[in-house]
Amino acid sequence: MRYNDREYATLQIVAAREGMDVGSYVATTSLAVAMQDLTPVPVKRRDELVEFIRARVAMNRLAAALGEVMATRDSGDETVALDEVLARVAGGIRRLEAAADAVAGLEPPS
Hints:
By secondary structure, this protein is mainly alpha-helical. It contains four helices and no strands. The chain has two domains: 5-34; 43-104. Helix 1 (5-17) packs across helix 2 (22-34) and helix 3 runs antiparallel to helix 4 (82-104).
């Protein structure tokens, strides 16, 4: 394989970080991609993927909170602000949908 100086320098840095020489890193990574164990993602998509993961975590937390609210409500406690929790859940769903659309490359609805 042929690399320009910048590409090779990048490979040296990444290979060293993984504790490998360049040849081993290239072979291991190429095989992982070929076996579909590793999917290359452009760096510019990183922020979108990070937001998507954060949105999923937020939705899991909201689902747990909603479960607690429902359990408290079912026990007869009327002090639970169900509308507030549902508004948070709706906001989380919108955030998750927006992140999913960004990852899929879809434009937000106008």
